[in-house]
């Protein structure tokens, strides 16, 4: 697919000439470590955003349009989480077999 380096790149990613145990081990390690890398990059991004502030190309001060996160959004988020837990609790307690696999009831 990529001229000059495509074959070498595929062999390096696969760990050989075909998909083998080395390939699965390599992809499992990548699959495991990738969320930590993404979380670290998101944390660094938020730290930089907190330090410098977001971009304001219009130059108009928007401090009057801002509302504080706490208590307004924290209460909203807590109520949303409680509502979702209530729905899950009702589903589990009153109809536990609703989402089950039909094969579980085959004698």
UniProtKB/TrEMBL annotation:
Q: Which GO terms describe its biological process?
A: mitochondrial electron transport, ubiquinol to cytochrome c
User: What parts of the sequence cross the membrane?
Assistant: 27-49, 70-94
Chief location of this protein within or outside the cell: mitochondrion
InterPro entries (alphabetical) = Cyt_b/b6_C, Cyt_b/b6_N, Cytb/b6-like_sf, Di-haem_cyt_TM
Q: How does it sit in the membrane?
A: Multi-pass membrane protein
> What's this protein's function?
Component of the ubiquinol-cytochrome c reductase complex (complex III or cytochrome b-c1 complex) that is part of the mitochondrial respiratory chain. The b-c1 complex mediates electron transfer from ubiquinol to cytochrome c. Contributes to the generation of a proton gradient across the mitochondrial membrane that is then used for ATP synthesis.
Q: How does it assemble?
A: The cytochrome bc1 complex contains 11 subunits: 3 respiratory subunits (MT-CYB, CYC1 and UQCRFS1), 2 core proteins (UQCRC1 and UQCRC2) and 6 low-molecular weight proteins (UQCRH/QCR6, UQCRB/QCR7, UQCRQ/QCR8, UQCR10/QCR9, UQCR11/QCR10 and a cleavage product of UQCRFS1). This cytochrome bc1 complex then forms a dimer.
Q: What is this protein called?
A: Cytochrome b
Gene name on record?
Answer: cytb
């Amino acid at each position: 697919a990529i001229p000059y380096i495509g074959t070498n790149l595929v062999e390096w990613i696969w760990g050989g000439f075909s998909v083998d145990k080395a390939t699965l081990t390599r992809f499992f390690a990548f699959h495991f470590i990738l969320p930590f890398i993404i979380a670290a990059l998101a944390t660094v991004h938020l730290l930089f955003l907190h330090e410098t502030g977001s971009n304001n190309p219009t130059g108009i001060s928007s401090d009057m349009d801002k509302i504080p996160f706490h208590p307004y959004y924290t209460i909203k988020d807590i109520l949303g989480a409680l509502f979702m837990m209530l729905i899950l609790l009702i589903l589990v307690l009153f109809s536990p077999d609703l989402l089950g696999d039909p094969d579980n009831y085959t004698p």
